[in-house]
Write a structure and sequence with these properties.
This protein has 256 residues and is an alpha/beta fold.
Length: 256
């Protein structure tokens, strides 16, 4: 939803509800999963988040710099986060804010700058969220820069995700429960998820070597460096409400 506020009232429940109903009526889409305010304008603190929550919108895409050259980790992160309610002390608002790292990319933020922002985003395993105007396609220089940027992003292994898919993944990730039994030379990890999850990534921060087993099947375990530290990484699938038990057989000493 591209939310257009009224001139005299930025947060009015009837305004956003009418726009949501209109979008549903003309698109036949029942679930409106994301909202972005027109021109990224914003007034107040958490009121708009609470407004979006009441209309059952799951993600907000406006939080970023809209002035020329204002780009990057403007709120200190490239990861989705939930805002804190100002009216319900200690509670978070159940809506995912996906930081906008580049507004009017290529036009206002050059492809060279965007490549540097992407490198930093990738180094922290963040979400690379930018907006691009259709006008970019009308300029050969802009279009070439945009295509080179996309090529770099895809070559680095990044995947296309909708805001709905990002919010859904974040919710499922938070629902995972784990238990680690630290048996010498043979730690055992148990994972339980309320919902099915495919390709769940696990990081074990240790410089040691190990192999992973689940049942009688051996799982690939790769040495890597994440967030500046050596670790072992792997992917596994979780079945809904079923415990996945993983055993680590270390070759030197137990996994931290």
């Amino acid at each position: 939803l591209r939310y257009v506020p009224e001139a005299d009232a930025f947060c009015r429940n009837s305004t956003i509800q009418n726009q949501v109903d209109t979008l549903r009526r003309f698109t036949s889409v029942r679930t409106i999963s994301a909202v972005q305010t027109e021109s990224l304008q914003w007034r107040g603190c958490s009121e708009f988040f609470e407004l979006a929550e009441r209309t059952q919108i799951r993600s907000e895409l406006s939080r970023g710099g809209f002035h020329p050259q204002s780009a990057g980790f403007l709120f200190g992160t490239a990861h989705p986060w939930k805002p804190v309610s100002r009216h319900r002390q200690g509670e978070v608002i159940p809506i995912w804010v996906i930081p906008l790292l580049g507004y009017h990319a290529i036009e206002r933020v050059s492809s060279e700058q965007l490549l540097q922002i992407f490198k930093m985003t990738r180094s922290v395993n963040g979400v690379f969220h930018i907006t691009v105007s259709p006008l970019v396609a009308g300029s050969p220089a802009y279009a070439d820069g945009f295509m080179r940027l996309l090529g770099t992003v895809r070559a680095e292994g990044y995947e296309w995700q909708t805001a709905y898919e990002v919010a859904q993944w974040c919710e499922r990730r938070q629902s995972v429960r784990h238990k680690l039994v630290n048996i010498p030379d043979k730690p055992q990890l148990s994972l339980l998820s309320a919902q099915p999850m495919a390709r769940l990534g696990l990081l074990f921060f240790t410089a040691l070597s190990a192999v992973a087993e689940s049942g009688e099947r051996q799982l690939p375990l790769v040495s890597a460096e994440r967030f500046g530290f050596p670790c072992l990484q792997m992917e596994t699938d979780l079945v809904e409400k079923s415990v996945r038990e993983i055993t680590f057989l270390t070759t030197q000493q137990q996994v931290a």
